[in-house]
Structure prediction request, 661 residues.
Amino acid sequence: MGARTRGLAYMWRFAGRRRTRSALIILAVAWGTLSMMLLLAFGEGLKLQMWKGSQGLGTSPIMLWAGSTTRAWEGMKPGRQIRFVEEDLTALERAVPEIDHVAAEDVSWSVDLRWGTQAVSARVTGVMPCYETVRAHHPQPGGRFLNDVDEARSRRVLFLGSALKERLFGPANAVGQTVFLRGVPFTVIGVMIDKQQMGMYGGPDIEKASIPLSTFESIFGRQPYGNILYTLKAGADPKTVEQAVREVLARRYRFDPADESAVHIWDSAQTNIEGEKIFKGIQAFLGIVGAMTLLVAGVGLANMLFVMIHRRTREIGLQMAIGAHRASITTQIVGESLLLAALGGYLGIGLAWILVEALQRLPVKSEALQFLGKPTLSLPLGIVTVIVLIGIGCLAGTLPARRAARLNPVEALRHE
Amino acid sequence: MSENGRAVIRMEAVGKTYRSGTIEFEALRGIDLTIRSHEMVAVIGSSGSGKSTLMNVMGCLDTPSCGTYAFEGRDIAQLSATDLADLRNRAIGFVFQSFHLLPYATARENVEMPLLFGGVPARRRRDRALEMLARVGLADRADHLPTQLSGGEMQRVAVARALANDPQVILADEPTGNLDTRTGRGILDLFGRLWKEGGTIVLITHDMRLARSCSRILKLEDGRIVHDGADLPADDDLVLAAAGE
Prediction:
């Protein structure tokens, strides 16, 4: 049995007998761990929520809105309104091979919808079948999204946003029901899954109804598209494609390709990147706050150990007098520090786990909380916390241990 | 003075000087001393005469500033801190005035402490501790905490602890100083018995009756040995006689 083992054996036997002081230290460490775990768990929940939100708009579509020119170009005066038409889609598809999907939509902001005696006013868009993936218009089980046949035959079919469905139908089943849209009967073919949406235009998708674009035109009259959107093939550079798109449209409508007001382009992927940067900032902030909390807990632990070792000066003097090696003294103190840090750490992690589980089971309706997401614990977080705790335990224990080992046994025995 | 035992402690011109800033204090000066096995030595002297310093140097808790000190023939100046710890563990048993028992350890666990730091396996530690407690008459108190013991019993536990590793010498610093006369006498009888069983004992005391029961009496004054003999110095004997003893 080496000197260190003897120190540990001594610590193991007597650490449990000093209950009050040990319990205080364990509680302090548990509190620090709990705070850090909760901060990190909230950060993780926020991250998940933001990721979900970034998926809400679809597969990073790039949106085009028609504007008006601000520069004279090829004999045309400024202030000309640009209007998107069906031919723009085919022109873009032909001229820019990097484009994967290109589609158009139109919108009517306030349309009367009626089901039985229930009537609401809602936003209705005419969209193309590719919106199911490109704009994440996924149907709930039991329903479907608009398809090519609906579009080709201008069917009177309606796809409801989940929130709009709640407004019109409440808990009743909507699929297969007939809804009167401006007095025209439509069959509900699907309801959108409930989704988080970070980037949006006009409002959240779950609050609108979608009908085939061709049907939309037959009801509201043929008119310039509200907007066009396209997606990129894998590996395409968004900047060059954007430039190509501007040039195609500039040729068609005769405006200066550098005139950005003629066509407004919004790359939702860029918004996601911005969002990620902001999120990284938030996460770093939470991490720093968490680390500070643990640091404070560590300083507290070191302080309490100092006091504890100081009060035990005579005991250490006695151990030296009866033949304990310095290594036995340092090992028992560092060992005790690690033991207390570990127990406090486990307690803190356990409490954090219970709290997080409880929060996840809590039904949350508030929008602010929906944006925050639900705190989520992850294995890497736990591992990082445990490693940090072990480090703190070692550091907090080492200083008092070295001080104790340097004690003069004669003076230590006389210590009051 | 028994001249036939082997020399356990041998000091030659040992001095100990404490420095506090620019002030020097000579706690021990020119101590020449040999203590052989199976001696029971009382160290007397007024407060500040150097008794405790002498005890700390003998017990290898402190090192001399000058001179040579050999314990069982080994020059302790040549020993490392670890060697000194091992020497204290195996060869020296300490008994303190204020007992120095661990408050949260039972009597048996307190006795086991030197065995633990000596690397004795748990089972043998336990058996040996119980044996030592029986030797000081506390077999039935093994599982009591110090707070559940009387002062005399606490000091007996401390003696059992000192005996645990079967040391060459027991150093006792005023072992009866915190006890009443009758309890003190009990401890004294215990030391007498250990001596008769072959132990070597050095004890510091203010108690002249205790000193007189030892085989040899050393008197210190200002860090020097001023008396070394089987009997009390004449003046101390007179004081004792005047007190009606």
Summary: Chain A touches chain B at residues 1, 3, 6, 9-10, 13-14, 17-18, 314-315, 317-326, 328, 408-410, 413 (CB under 8 Å). Chain A is about 55% helix and 15% strand. The two ends of chain A are 32 Å apart (CA to CA).
